[in-house]
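hey so i finally got around to running both of the ones u sent me last week. sorry it took forever, my laptop kept dying halfway thru and i had to restart like 3 times lol. anyway pasting them below in the order u listed, first the sequence line then the structure token line for each. didnt double check formatting much so if smth looks off just lmk and ill redo it

first one:
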Amino acid sequence: MGSVFILILLMFVAYLFLLQRRQDERATGLARQLCQQQQIQFLDCARDSHRWTSVNGKKGFRTLYLVDFSGDGESRYQAELWLKGQKLAAFELPAFKM
């Protein structure tokens, strides 16, 4: 009985890992698309944290991604990309030099 519980636990951990990988790939794709729409150069996208927070007035469990970009090809800036599951919750660009 104990080995069945361990097997189910391992399968659950693997499932969570695969969900997180899919969300990471979605965030990178969204970041590239949003940077292209803003006509800025996409540099990097990295997961920062998972939080229970309020984004745009709605509370929930969100994942924060930090998106590095350049507006002029020389400077490096950092935007915030919030995902709720696989859906975009918010994209916040700081002021940057073009």
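and the second one:
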Amino acid sequence: MELNRITFDPNVMGGKPCIRGMRVTVGAIVGLIASGKSFDEVLEFYPYLEVEDISEALAYAAWRADEIEIPFQAA
């Protein structure tokens, strides 16, 4: 998987995965989508982003979720 819009820089947001070196983390984008915001709404919040940035943030998050097994405990 090639993700060229996700960057890591220890001097930007503590090295968290960000969008194109900006101070917008993958987690922020995924959180907005998870809370029910549409791509268009995310782009209103961050007008300097592009649709491809959101898509790649989601792809990265899905890849990471698949790579890291988190134990699930039913309530």
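quick thing i noticed on the 2nd:
The two ends are 35 Å apart (CA to CA).
anyway thats it, ttyl
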